[in-house]
Amino acid sequence: MAVDSTKPGKELYEFDVFRVDAERETLLRAGDPVPLPPKAFQVLLVLIRNSQEVVTKDELMKEVWPDTFVEEANLSRNIFLLRKALGESPQDHRYVLTVPGRGYRLAERVRLVPDREASIVAATHSKIVLKVEETHRRWWLGASALLLLVAGAIGVWVFGERKPRLTDKDTIVLSEFTNSTGDPVFDETLRRGLAVQLAQSPYLTLVSDERMHRTLALMGQPTNAPVSRDAARAVCERTASAAVLEGSINSLGTAYVLGLRATSCRTGDVLAEEQAQAARKEEVLGVLGQMASSFRQHLGESLSSISKYSTPLPDATTPSLDALRAYSLGWKSTFGATGPAEGIPFFKRAIELDPNFATAYAMLGRTYGELGDANLSAEYTTKAYQMKERTSEPERYFITMNYEMQVTGNLEKARQAGELWVNAYPRDAHPRGLLSFIYQSLGRMDNAMEEGRASLALDADLVPGYANLAWAYVLAEQLQRAEEVIRNASSRGIQFPDLYILLYDVAFLKNDEQGMLRAVAMADGKLGPEHWMAARQACVLAYRGHLIEARTFTQRAVLLAQKDGQTDRAALYLAGLATREALFGNSEEAKGAADSAMRLSKNRDVLYGAAFAYAWAGAEAQATATIDDLEKHFPEDTFVNGIYLPTIRAILARNHHDSSRADELLHITAQYEMSVPGTWFGFFGMMYPTYVRGMAYLDARQGDKAAAEFKKIVEHRGFVASDPIGALASLQLARSFSMIGDAAQAESKYRDVLANWKGAAPEAPIIREGKSESIR
Fold first, then answer.
1. pTM for the model
2. φ, ψ at 26 (rounded to 5°)
3. What is the residue range of 47's domain?
4. How many distinct structural domains can be found in the chain?
5. Which of 76, 256, 313, 652 has its CA 20 to 30 A from that of 15?
């Protein structure tokens, strides 16, 4: 039966050897105080008030964290702390029992202590608390006086015992430095510098800025303001982190005194604290780096680990405070609400102030890559790669992966760098997120899903983790799982450009016209997603045979992309248009679109789309010239060597009626048959080598082999989605069945083709042919 807590007077409970004072939030064992964090105490109080009855997890979370979002892991951690305080072992839960699938209950019978006895106990406890507080106050005043006496010869001071304070499973929240100098150059700068320095540790893990911003948003707090001490502590509690790390800087004549303090989120205890002095402003970053290395030791990291992963802060970033401040502001803009483009001026300012600032070049390369400008991304990423020895260990991995992905295009080297990064930093979500993308590109969907799930398990607010995992599920046609990932992202307030296209593609694959319209409405007015959506709508229109309307939507996508400053993306949309027109037999339109794409950009994927269109349309000279460009500028590129060049050369071989040569050229593409090439960002290119191989078999009158190739495309709807290659493969499959004399299957496929092209104007040669063939 639940205890009646509505009685007047003191609310003091007793069970076994314990007494609980609800008013003072204290727990006594046989009269002695038992340390218990506030939230763990509140959990205990709820269980006491429902003695011997099951309290569900939802009820506990609503009682202890009313009107506040927290993760279930927070409740589990406080249950663990409560059990530890009560003296339970992991094998023996004597007091707090878990009821599988439901919640928890307090096993002991609870007695409400009468008012008189409660008053005596409370008075006694007050004396204990006052004594403890007075002792702590005297110690702090003495320590402060000692600091003042030795300030002139200050080195590094560490308070408390030198023993491991955290485990390799704990996370830390980093707050903004308290800047008492009046000099704004330290604002944001020291926090970012400390984050870079601590990120070198494979032992310690900081709550990511993405997760920090998301948690603050769920709390109704501004995400673009400096992370105050109170905000950091609130984030620490809501993310079930172990500690808050606070910093400070003060002036001392011409010198500067820096302080660091780690405080337990569970108990409020100071885990480690240290101060150091920089004689001059120019020495602040160096001193901060030394403090960070020392702090890592006091928080539990081994000396061998610190020695291995401890690039000095000025070397890992920059010796220039002004350059680091500009970089910090760029980082904040990139990961804040304003979006990645807002960070570009700050990163450029950082490299103006320090031309050797490698990580600033790396961030510019990353930002331009996200904005679809492949040329600028490659330029800045190359600069970063040339200076990668001027960075920390995780930054070197990041720069190497980006260089191999965006400059050389060697995905195997990028994968190797990513796996080394994961092995060195197993608790970092970012390399796993990047690996998920690389595995998708290589067609290894099982690995892509595994790394996507792992990245989100490490950081539930990692935006690329959601995008990569959802796409992996769509490509594998696991639509229900993709929708679950999208819902999980939405429930955390996470939005990203891919979200709308994912919803649109899932609806298309489910033949859900209303769902497609809803996705379009969601993207409307959002400049980046809007041009991507217009390009995807063009694909659907072309898939259904409405080529004139598809051209209109492509032109809209091009104009919107140019307005958004994404010239490469605009060119990619035109290259996709060129391939569609070529495949449908509109040769002049194909060559015109390819010319337009090449005038805007000559990046790798645009070159491939244009060369494919030229070759299919019979413009051999233009196709050959474009092949030469690809071969010259991308000698190591996985897609160029494994997909692009063999495919275009196979088309040219077909044009010369050499189907066996075409088949031979396409052998190398078999290992990349289910890969996701860079042309995907323009919504074309998926399984194109498979289609070309099937056409070569049709040319050779090998209907059975041709049918096998076209079946691969038709049976992987999630992979090709609304790329018109899927509709055209159905027609070619019907032709293949007809060639081998399977009239029933041929008729069935022709019916599918007619149904898909219902209402389509037969201005394209292949549509006219398909309709004519199906009527016979």
1. 0.75
2. -125, 150
3. 12-116
4. 4
5. 76
